[in-house]
Design brief:
Blueprint: E1 3-8, E2 14-15, E3 32-33, E4 35-37, E5 39-41, E6 47-49, E7 53-58, E8 67-72, E9 78-84, E10 87-92, E11 95-96, E12 98-100, E13 103-104, E14 106-108, H1 113-116, E15 120-124, E16 127-132, E17 135-144, E18 147-152, E19 160-161, E20 171-173, E21 179-186, E22 199-202, E23 205-214, E24 217-224, E25 230-231, E26 242-243, E27 251-253, E28 262-267, E29 279-282, E30 285-292, E31 297-304, E32 318-322, E33 333-337, E34 340-344, E35 352-355, E36 374-377, E37 387-393, E38 395-400, E39 404-408, E40 421-426, E41 436-438, E42 441-445, E43 452-457, E44 463-467, E45 480-486, E46 492-497, E47 502-508, E48 513-517, E49 524-532, E50 537-547, E51 550-558, E52 572-586, E53 596-601, E54 604-610, E55 616-629, E56 633-637, E57 643-644, E58 647-648, E59 653-666, E60 670-671, E61 674-675, E62 694-700, E63 705-706, E64 713-717, E65 724-735
Parallel strand pairs: 2-3
Antiparallel strand pairs: 1-65, 4-56, 5-6, 6-65, 7-51, 8-9, 9-10, 10-11, 10-14, 12-13, 15-16, 16-17, 17-18, 19-32, 20-21, 20-25, 21-24, 22-23, 22-26, 23-24, 27-28, 28-31, 29-30, 29-32, 30-31, 33-34, 34-35, 35-36, 37-38, 38-39, 39-40, 41-42, 42-43, 43-44, 45-46, 46-47, 47-48, 49-50, 50-51, 52-55, ...
Length: 737
């Protein structure tokens, strides 16, 4: 019957999945826990009570969700944007920006509450770019705390290609079967003479135009069957038609140079439509159309000099029109990288990215010079790989639906149109949940939303990927909703799940700390966002709660400062009030109306009270009152695996004859339900004063046998006091039979 001293020196293995209960061979087994609830594993190895969610403000609407998006101009000018149903509000230093006293400042936006969670964004100085697949990219600019402007991104030009023509008319084909002599009929004037030789397509059908009778009618040969006989100008009506290519006629320029000169382009047959702003590639040059004089003549400005003014025959020149539109879609992702503004993934071009000209973030003029815009479509893989997010972390990384792709230029050279290479680094796929950059590593949610991976640079070249949630997969089994990363004070990735839980993943590769801890609040966490402050990062959350029988949505801040100095009270939806004189009627708690809350008054734990009329009634007057919704901090350690004379201790009856818990500046502790005595009563320490925090070893006698596999050890803090556990020493007796 051996007796052994077993020490748990750290919790860097985090909360282990129940599926690992038998894996005592894993290196991190004895630094893991059966449960870590509402605690955060410190990067040094200990575990501390999760910081409380401090109430900041109510969202504009309680009936619809709102998303938080960070806007960081500097460490002292960092904002949280509350993006909800067609509005944006602004919060700075934990306070809503106001346009007048008690009137939150806000601006209008096109995004619905649901669409707010689909926005991707990137920021440079005081300008943020917003991307959403249903809207032209937006530009958000800050001019002052209460002066913001949201407008269309001024792309001149936006990405262009030979995408053909579309117009606001319906086009019907007389017979959709393959064959000649089919009649195309438009509901408005559309067809021109130079359309002969061009293809028209919709819904999978394709026809070659062979003759134009009138602006309303043309003859065509069907080469691919039309299952829908009518094409429409809008996806809301049905399949959208497109007249492919450029006018099939000659084009003649009046001059070939210099750059900036105004010239005319004349066609051999009618072909110009509403083409102002379009680019024309002709005779190795590039011009921009500025005015349409007639169906055969336009004015244009030379952007790149032409080689000659010889008439360019049909198919030897092309009209480049804007790629993005309501029917072809708008980019869903964006990023700044190497002095370019990058966009990616539209409905029509899901695997394509576009990079602006170097240092000209709104100019997407194509070309082959090193500073020209970059147009790149990812190579085909075994699976379709729509680009989910673009990340600039050492390289331009494209996180796709089925693979993670690195984009790079030549050897030690930046990306250009002529040298860009793309290589698939791993093939796990990224969920539509915005990733976080940690140094040069990218933390992202794997496709499916139930695993977290890290994409990290290898020593030689490229990237590799690892699953950092495999040991704690049970915590995120209900799917991840959003993640947000705090660099300081503790390198924590906060994770909210689809059920509204709030988990903490401590990620510090230097100290080999990859530790998950589960958590929850009395409500549902719906959004997370982190901004820097002068001394640390702070994370804010949108929390859906039921208060006094009604649904509310509050913005609350994870407050790491609670537990330092005189700040006490680890309660969610935390409200802290200080009064000029001691009072027994603590007012200002209306956001907790009707709720039974836990209360501390002048740092003394009072238990629970009910908020009535925004007031908490105290037994004794106090000058500082803290109240909120309680949450326990819990650590459960399984019986350890220790060697015995006969081999393993697994399956043997065990007892904990003694337990020692090393605490750091902690108040309150229960071990397997038994309260540990902290307070020593003497003349300097009475019930009228808050208890002194304890640092050091605390002894607990815990005697008991278990006939199977031993007794779990539960450490609990349920009074909302500061609490940090550094190590646990157990004296284990094993009955080996």
């Amino acid at each position: 019957m051996p007796k052994l001293e077993v020490v748990t020196t750290n919790f860097t293995g985090g909360e282990f999945s129940p599926l690992l209960a038998g894996r005592t061979d894993i290196e991190k087994y004895n630094s893991s826990a059966k449960k870590l609830e509402n605690v955060v594993v410190l990067k040094q190895g200990g575990a501390t009570i999760r910081p409380p969610l401090q109430y900041i403000a109510s969202t504009k609407f309680t009936v619809s969700q709102a998303r938080l998006i960070r806007f960081v101009y500097s460490r002292s000018d960092a904002y949280q944007l509350e993006v909800g149903q067609n509005y944006i509000r602004f919060m700075k230093n934990g306070v809503l920006v106001e346009s007048a006293p008690n009137v939150p400042y806000e601006i209008a936006s096109p995004y619905t509450a649901a669409e707010a969670f689909e926005i991707d964004f990137t920021q440079g100085e005081d300008t943020m770019i917003l991307a959403h697949g249903s809207y032209y990219p937006r530009r958000l600019r800050r001019f002052a705390d209460a002066r913001w402007v949201l407008d269309l991104a001024p792309l001149k030009p936006a990405p262009v290609a030979e995408v053909g023509n579309q117009a606001a008319v319906n086009i019907t084909i007389s017979n959709g079967a393959v064959g000649a002599g089919r009649t195309l009929t438009a509901t408005g004037n559309f067809f021109l003479a130079s359309d002969v030789g061009r293809e028209i397509t919709w819904g999978g059908g394709t026809a070659l135009i062979t003759a134009v009778a009138t602006p309303l009618s043309a003859t065509a040969t069907v080469t691919a069957t039309f299952f829908d006989l009518t094409g429409y100008p809008s996806i809301n009506l049905g399949p959208v038609w497109t007249l492919l290519g450029s006018p099939m006629t000659t084009a003649t320029a009046s001059a070939k140079d210099p750059v900036g000169a105004t010239i005319t382009l004349t066609l051999g047959a009618a072909g110009w439509r509403d083409d102002v702003g379009s680019l024309v590639e002709i005779n190795s040059g590039l011009v921009r159309i500025t005015n349409v004089t007639s169906a055969t003549v336009v004015d244009a400005v030379i952007i790149r000099e032409l080689s000659s003014v010889v008439a360019a025959p049909a198919d030897a020149w092309s009209v480049l029109r804007q790629i993005w539109s309501d029917t072809r879609g708008y980019p869903k992702s964006c990023a700044f990288y190497q002095q370019r503004l990058w966009f990616g993934n539209t409905t029509t071009y899901p695997q394509t990215i576009w990079g602006s000209r170097t240092a000209l973030y709104f100019d997407y003029t194509p070309g082959t010079d090193d500073d020209s815009a970059v147009y790149k479509t990812l190579a085909a893989t075994d699976e379709v790989n729509p680009i989910t997010f673009l990340c600039g972390a050492g390289s331009l990384v494209m996180l796709g639906f089925s693979a993670e792709v690195e984009g790079k230029g030549g050897i030690e050279k930046p990306i250009t149109q002529t040298n860009m290479q793309t290589n698939a680094e791993s093939e796990w796929g990224c969920a539509p949940i915005r990733p976080m950059t940690v140094g040069k590593e990218i933390v992202f949610v794997e496709r499916g939303g139930r695993a977290v991976r890290v994409l990290f640079p290898q020593q030689v070249d490229g990237y590799d990927s690892t699953d950092v949630s495999v040991f704690s997969e049970h915590l995120i089994a209900d799917g991840i909703r959003e993640i947000s990363y705090e660099r300081r004070p503790n390198s924590v990735l906060w994770v909210c799940t689809n059920s509204g839980k709030l988990h903490a993943f401590t990620y510090n590769r230097e100290q080999n700390t990859l530790a998950w801890a589960g958590g929850w609040t009395d409500g549902e966490v719906e959004s997370l966002s982190t901004v820097p402050t002068p001394d640390a990062d702070v994370t804010d959350a949108v929390v859906k709660r039921t208060i006094n029988g009604a649904t509310v949505r509050y913005i609350e801040r994870l407050n790491w400062k609670v537990g330092t100095g005189s700040l006490v009270g680890f309660y969610d939806c935390r409200v802290d009030k200080t009064y000029g004189a001691a009072t027994a009627s603590a007012t200002g708690f209306g956001v907790l109306e009707g709720e039974q809350v836990t209360v501390m008054a002048d740092a003394i734990y009072l238990g629970t009270r009910t908020v009535t009329g925004g007031t908490i009634t105290l037994d004794e007057p106090a000058t500082n009152v803290v109240a909120g919704l309680p949450y326990p901090a819990r650590i459960v350690l399984p019986p350890p695996e220790v060697g015995t004379g006969t081999g393993t201790s697994t399956g043997q009856a065990k007892s904990n004859s003694k337990v020692q818990v090393r605490l750091h500046e902690s108040v309150g502790l229960k071990v397997n339900g038994a309260e540990v005595e902290f307070r020593k009563f003497d003349v300097d320490n009475t019930l009228d004063n808050p208890p002194d925090p304890v640092t050091g070893l605390v002894d607990v006698t815990e005697i008991g046998w278990d006939e199977d596999d031993g007794v779990d050890l539960e450490l609990l803090q349920e009074q909302g006091q500061k609490w940090t556990v550094l190590a646990v020493v157990r004296t284990i007796t094993v009955n080996a039979g």
